[in-house]
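Table S2 (text version). Query chain:
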Amino acid sequence: MRWVRRSAAVVIAAASTVGLGAPAALAAFEFGTVPKLPILSTVTLNAKAQTVDTTMTNLSVIDTRGTKSGWNVTVAGQSGTGKSAVFAEYCPKAKCGANAEGYIAGGKTMAAKSLSLSSAGAKFTGGTGTPPTLQCSPACNVDSATAVKIASAATGGAGESTWTTTGFSTTSLALSVPTTLKALASEEIYRVNLLWTLATGP
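Corresponding structure-token output:
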């Protein structure tokens, strides 16, 4: 997801990383379609609180372990070297004025929990047995350091084979833009790193 500044407008970006629990030998336990946030619309700053909506992209999980142990998908903001768990000022090229590529030390940030995911109306299709459950209805905040469970398959055989999400609404991803959001220097953006993790167990 990406925000690029044009005049008094900003466009935002999220870099996604995927984690995976240890798979069973000779069996698949993985994302078939990796979770990935779409690009958000450009926002014109007008000193008013705004909400930017878009449609969450679909994901799929493959589980052919035969263990009937279930699984879950979580998402969290990712910190560490070269990463940010909240939307922060970022230079996406070799140089942005005096700033090198990467997050700007001491740069502008947005509050944690500015981005929410709603699974209202969405579901998993395909697979065999009981479908997995999407957890974010009401909406979950996804841009903080605390992991949030967004989907799970119960023990006893739920979620086996390949399950794919469908039906995310046009407002399933919502970014709250505060009145205090600061415009950035030309070519800089607000960016966040999100870690999506598939693990065994419901």
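Notes on Table S2: The chain has a mean pLDDT of 87. The radius of gyration is 18 Å.
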